[in-house]
Amino acid sequence: MFGLGAPELLIVLAVVMLLFGGAKVPQLARSLGLAKKEFEAATDDTVEPQKTVSTTVVASTPAPAAPAPAAPVAGSTVQPKA
Known about the structure:
By secondary structure, the protein is mainly alpha-helical. It is built from 2 helices and no strands. The protein has a domain at 6-59. Helix content is 62%, strand content 0%. The protein is rod-shaped, with a radius of gyration of 34 Å.
């Protein structure tokens, strides 16, 4: 992972402890975890609607309607069958 070994990670951890203090490190880690979780959820939301839109468009295509009856011609009368 980025060429960091155990000694480098210990140095980074020591610097973080000096900058933020022992009480703030768990809170900082929790905030980073929540931000990562929120980011992943947001990226999943952007991918998911594209899938549903394509299936919705296909599924919501209306069935062909029956042809409408012809309009009566002016001057003609239709006699009902007895």
